[in-house]
Design a protein that fits this description.
Layout: H1 5-11, H2 17-32, E1 38-40, E2 43-46, H3 51-65, E3 74-77, H4 94-109, H5 120-123, E4 133-135, H6 138-146, H7 157-166, E5 168-170, E6 182-186, H8 193-206, E7 211-214, H9 221-234, E8 240-242, E9 250-254, H10 256-266, E10 274-277, H11 284-293, E11 303-306, H12 309-318, H13 320-326, E12 329-332, E13 350-353, H14 356-364, E14 369-372, H15 375-382
Parallel strand pairs: 2-3, 2-4, 6-7, 6-9, 7-8, 10-11, 10-13, 11-12, 13-14
Antiparallel strand pairs: 1-5
């Protein structure tokens, strides 16, 4: 991989220990992905925030480097493990709370924006088409490439942090022009957000770095996010290309049979003890829709709604949060359905959700069963 004289000197440690560490990560990543060089980025989005995922080693690492490391580009942050406003309501372990707050403080010390959101594309202004970014959150990377006309690889927690410190990323894979090797023909009629989530999960399993999809109608935000969230859980594929024209690549149908296969893989319960909405987190438009759907209705069981803090503040001003709380919703910001200690197998047997991403992590990481339904079915079956 070609490096400039300044990059070579940083790699040798001539610009300090932190820069040397960051360049080592980027060069190793670049060599593993056949990168030509390092290129500047304008925005990094970091994972590695939840104490459940990075543990004591991650917390200690961040605490140590935050004493001297600073990010050099706009850098935003994934959800953590709880909503800091109501953490006392959930009986969490004090060690978890302490370590999570340490992680939060370390990132803030390094100059990271404490967004605690997996949908940065909805709460920050999108740069011009073709802008190079470094997104570690899987659904955000796919959304950036597929819907926002940005360019990012599916970054790891370490590579995104290194990119945030240096302001550069390896020029490889999806940062270059790419050609899908598979076209998926959408054959399911009248798809909802759950259908699109299953399509994404299917595409992520069979795709390489990108897939072409044909036969799609215009999607709303919930459906776009569902597709990105589903794709991000099942493989390394990180981009949808939408092309109705003929192509020479292999063609595979996503039909009722394939959809049922995905549903059967992730749906492990006939009903849930708790309902979760927001994986990826809900944006303001989705909160507005949910409020309208719940008009005059209320949930028959506990319903947890996850959204970014900035969206919660907007929703509160409009009056949406009052309506949702009237309907029995617990509204949580700063955290997400996935990997949160707020939901665990010790107090929950099964969760009802409309999220493929949420279903995957609830089943595989939290160890709880999942009842998959579309949002309209949840409203119909779980409210009165």
């Amino acid at each position: 991989m070609e490096l400039t004289r300044e990059e070579e000197s940083a790699l040798k440690g001539e610009h300090g220990e932190i820069m040397q560490m960051a360049y080592r990560i980027l060069v190793a990543t670049g060599e593993a992905t056949d990168a030509d060089k390092l290129i500047p980025i304008e925005w990094a989005h970091l994972s590695g925030v939840n104490y459940n995922t990075i543990g004591d080693a991650g917390e200690e690492f961040l605490s140590n480097i935050s004493k001297i490391a600073r990010v050099s580009v706009k850098t935003t942050l994934n959800p953590m493990g709880f909503d800091i406003d109501n953490v006392k309501n959930y009986g969490l372990d004090e060690n978890f709370i302490s370590k999570q707050l340490s992680i939060k403080n370390s990132y803030e010390t390094m100059g990271v924006i404490p967004s605690f959101s997996c949908i940065p594309y909805e709460i920050f202004e999108i740069p011009k088409d073709g802008t190079q970014v470094a997104f570690a959150e899987s659904n955000a990377a796919i959304h950036a490439n597929s819907f926002d006309s940005l360019k990012t690889n599916k970054e790891s927690a370490f590579s995104a942090l290194a990119s945030a410190i240096v302001g550069k990323s390896p020029y490889s894979s999806l940062r270059k022009d790419d050609s899908p090797n598979i076209t998926i023909n959408m054959k399911v009629k009248n798809p909802n957000e759950l259908t699109y989530g299953m399509l994404g999960f299917f595409a992520g399993k069979i795709g390489d770095t990108s897939v072409n999809i044909s036969g799609l109608a215009e999607m709303d935000k919930r459906q776009c996010k569902a597709m990105c969230g589903g794709m991000g859980t099942s493989g390394t594929c990180a981009k949808f290309i939408f092309d109705e024209g003929d192509s020479d690549c292999e063609k595979i149908d996503f039909d009722e049979k394939e959809m049922k296969n995905v549903h059967d893989e992730l749906n492990t319960a006939e009903k849930g003890d708790v309902i979760t909405l927001g994986s990826p987190q809900l944006g303001l438009d989705e909160i507005s829709d949910l409020t309208s759907m719940l008009k005059g209705r209320s949930f028959k069981k506990r319903c947890m709604v996850f959204l970014p803090r900035t969206v919660k503040e907007q929703a509160k001003k409009i009056g949406y949060t009052t309506e949702l709380e009237r309907a029995g919703c617990e509204i949580l910001s700063d955290c997400c359905t996935c990997l949160t200690p707020l939901i665990n197998k010790e107090n929950v047997d099964a969760v009802t959700t409309n999220s493929i991403k949420g279903a995957f992590y609830l089943k595989n990481s939290n160890g709880v069963d999942v009842n998959l339904k579309s949002l309209s079915e949840i409203i119909q079956d779980e409210t009165r």
